[in-house]
Specification:
Largest sheet: none
Structural class: mainly alpha
Radius of gyration: 20 Å
Number of domains: 1
Strand content: under 5%
Number of strands: 0
Oligomer: single chain
Shape: elongated
Distance between the termini: 27 Å
Helix content: over 70%
Number of helices: 11
Length: about 250
């Protein structure tokens, strides 16, 4: 476990250094309005987002658990991870733009949105219950799987990204909201990259497991349904655990 703590400490240090450098760039941009100097730094947002998404949180467990029990192909799994990434980052941008004083009263402390977090967990729990029920029903069509996957990505992404919100707050405090939005957009690419790797790993694990039993169709059908029900139970457990921990 020591390597895990070491990685977490390294990730926190990288994020801190990038955020401090970004703060200086935003202050300079606020004084000069020089987009060229800011644009040179923007690619660091990809690193910032990728490292940040690799730390605990960001619904990685929800994403991996759902995809491992789904029948989605790799490209559609990537679409689910992309929806999660876009929703996760854009929710923070929206909260910042919709007036922070009002939001702080309605949702709580800066960096969190308890109402959205509760909604996200509740919806994930409902998806889990539905998957348990579906494990005992005839299989749905592939189009239903895709739609369900995108819904899971959206629901899991409703929890806003605190670091994106911090960047937006700082940029808005300096009167350069556009700089915050630009960095958030680039940061979204980094988040999407990490979540895409999580999605592909889950699909590879699932496909590897299914290849071991594909020569026995009856066993395959039974395990497929069982895996679907197990994923539903795990999603419900994750949702309940998050609700308990948030109190």
């Amino acid at each position: 476990m020591s390597w895990l703590y070491g990685w977490y400490g390294y990730a926190v240090a990288v994020q801190r250094d990038i955020y401090q450098a970004l703060s200086g760039r935003i202050e300079t941009f606020a004084d000069t309005g020089d987009w060229a100097q800011l644009a040179v730094f923007l690619p660091m947002g990809i690193v910032f987002g990728a490292v940040h998404a690799a730390t605990p949180g960001h619904s990685k467990m929800v994403l991996a658990t759902y995809l491992a029990g789904s029948r989605l192909a790799a490209l559609r799994a990537l679409a689910v991870s992309a929806v999660l990434s876009v929703t996760h980052v854009s929710m923070s941008v929206a909260i910042a733009l919709l007036s922070l004083p009002l939001v702080s009263v309605a949702f709580g402390q800066i960096g969190r949105a308890p109402a959205l977090e509760t909604l996200s967990r509740g919806l994930i729990g409902l998806i889990g219950i539905w998957m348990i029920w579906r494990a005992f029903r005839p299989a749905k069509t592939h189009s239903h799987q895709v739609g369900q996957g995108l819904a899971v990505g959206f629901m899991a992404g409703l929890i806003p990204c605190p670091l994106t919100l911090f960047v937006m707050v700082f940029a808005m405090s300096k009167g350069v909201t556009a700089a915050g939005i630009a960095f958030a957009g680039v940061m979204m690419l980094g988040v999407a990259l990490t979540l895409a790797l999580v999605a592909l790993a889950a699909i590879l694990f699932r496909n590897g497991l299914l290849r071991l039993i594909e020569r026995r169709p009856m066993l395959f059908a039974a395990i497929s349904r069982g895996l679907h029900g197990l994923v539903g139970l795990l999603l419900v457990a994750i949702a309940l655990n998050e609700v308990v921990l948030s109190r």
